[in-house]
Design goal:
Blueprint (H helix, E strand, L loop, with lengths): L8 E2 L1 H17 L3 E5 L2 H6 L7 E2 L4 E2 L9 E2 L3 E4 L13 E9 L13 E4 L11 E4 L3 E2 L12 E4 L9 E2 L10 E3 L4 E2 L1 H9 L4 E5 L3 E6 L4 E2 L10 E2 L2 H11 L3 E4 L7 H11 L5 E5 L9 H6 L5 E5 L1 E2 L3 E7 L8 E6 L3 H19 L9 E5 L4 E2 L5 E8 L5 E3 L8 H5 L3 E5 L5 E2 L4 E6 L3
Parallel strand pairs: 1-21, 7-8, 16-19, 16-20, 17-18, 20-24, 22-27
Antiparallel strand pairs: 2-15, 3-14, 4-13, 5-12, 6-8, 6-9, 7-11, 10-11, 21-23, 23-24, 25-31, 26-30, 27-28, 27-29, 29-31
């Protein structure tokens, strides 16, 4: 990773490249884990199954369907037995015992039909199914209304409404390719083959450490000068959405030793450390004070909000490799914008997401906006009824409520001092 002096100002692109380089070893050493496949396990831990990705090609241990079965409720027949059947000259066949789903099917004798339910096995000797509505009477035998024979007004084509064994997939075929994201259909076909366990990419394990002597848990009593911590919740949610597992361990102290103690306790359990706050030029910057001596670089990125940033890797107890560290500023909008620009697409790629980047739109501004020419400004906005971008709230990094009511991150690049109403700009959709 490139080392830049503390005073250097990076561009957004340079800092993004540095974060990618920092996390590149995670891409080279992705780890597999076993995932059981059962409705009970999925219902008990639903988050464990969201956005998972196969490690290797998955081969089917069985045919799907596993046996020849009926696509319709109707009658299994030999098509040749009904040659010549016509509406004005129907052919009548006696009935063999009814075959229900889950039953074994005895062979079908020539000149006989067997009532067969959807999904029930096709008896050997039969090669077609005639739907119940195409025979007379158009009903199955019941205790109060026995049916001994039925009339057919047309001969079916061989294979009509028959689902042959292996017509979906054959045993030994690739069921799903390596890298396939798993959702309802994929889990369903896996279960349908009888597989009980699969190998998926282990999620990136992230430790989030919000910092500050002033932060407190939501719901606790605030003393003068204290605030509720929003950064832990917003980053935990963003990381889960990016396909990670998350542990949030706040450091409610400006003492560097306290922060280092948290890292020592949890470093062996995670792949990435994200700290929030304590990275600027104040008198008590706990993250900078604790991590700069360990090799983390702190400086500024030419962006607004989110200028102060830290990046590096530290040696930690019980780890063979160094722990990657990304440090965000403490204002919540700055932290979330920083995550969107620098970490989200990388982490989603590590998770195997098919579309790691935010969808991009280009649309006109509803009103003029000023931007500092030396910085890449990211504003929050939404599309109005005319398809124009309406900015929501101001540029300040504390306006989290405005962010929460936005559906776009609007990009005003370096060099742009003013964009007029109607000027087209780039925006990322954040409402997917």
């Amino acid at each position: 990773m490139e080392r830049r002096p503390l005073s250097a100002v990076r561009s957004v692109e340079e800092h993004r490249a540095a974060v990618e380089a920092l996390l590149e070893p995670l891409a080279r050493s992705r780890v597999a884990e076993a995932l059981p496949v059962s409705p009970a396990a999925m219902a008990a831990a639903p988050d464990r199954y969201r956005a998972r990705v196969l490690v290797d090609d998955l081969r089917s241990p069985s045919d799907l369907p596993p046996f020849d079965n009926s696509q319709m409720d109707g009658y299994a027949v030999r098509a040749a037995d009904l040659t010549g059947a016509a509406p004005d000259a129907p052919l009548r066949l006696p009935l063999a015992p009814q075959i229900n789903a889950g039953d074994a099917a005895p062979p079908l004798a020539p000149g006989v039909a067997a009532a067969v339910m959807t999904g029930a096995p096709i008896p050997s000797g039969a090669d077609a199914v005639v739907p119940i509505e195409h025979v007379e009477p158009p009903r199955f035998s019941t205790a109060g209304a026995p049916v001994d024979e039925v009339a057919f007004a047309a001969a079916p084509h061989p294979e009509a409404f028959v689902r042959r064994a292996g017509s979906d997939v054959r045993a030994g075929d690739v069921l799903l390719a390596a890298g396939t994201p798993l959702a309802a259909a994929q889990y369903g076909v896996i279960a349908g083959t009888g597989l009980r366990e699969i190998a998926v990419l282990r999620r990136t394990r992230v430790l989030v450490v919000p910092t500050g002597h002033e932060i407190r848990e939501p719901g606790s009593r605030l003393e003068p000068g204290q605030i509720y911590d929003s950064n832990g919740a917003l980053l935990a949610s963003a990381l889960l959405d990016a396909g990670c597992t998350v542990a949030v361990k706040p450091c409610r102290s400006d003492d560097a030793e306290r922060l280092l103690a948290i890292l020592t306790e949890h470093a062996a359990e995670v792949d990435l450390l994200i700290t929030v706050g304590g990275v600027s030029a104040g008198a008590r910057e706990v993250v900078r004070d604790a991590l700069a001596p360990l090799g983390v670089q702190f400086g500024s990125v030419a962006m607004q909000p989110g200028g102060p940033q830290g990046i590096g890797a530290i040696a930690a107890a019980d780890r063979d490799e160094r722990l990657p560290v990304v440090s965000f500023p403490g204002n919540p909008v700055s932290a979330l914008v920083s995550f969107e620009l620098f970490l989200r697409p990388i982490l989603r790629r590590l998770a195997g997401a098919a579309r790691p980047e935010r969808p991009v739109v280009h649309a006109p501004l509803a009103a003029a906006v000023d931007s500092p020419a030396a910085k890449h400004q990211i504003r929050r906005g939404r599309l109005d009824d005319d398809g124009a971008i309406e900015l929501v709230g101001g540029a300040s990094s504390h306006l989290l409520h405005s962010y929460a009511n936005s559906s776009l991150l609007v990009h005003l690049p370096v060099g742009l001092e003013r964009a007029g109403a109607g000027d087209r700009v780039e925006a990322w959709r954040i409402d997917d």
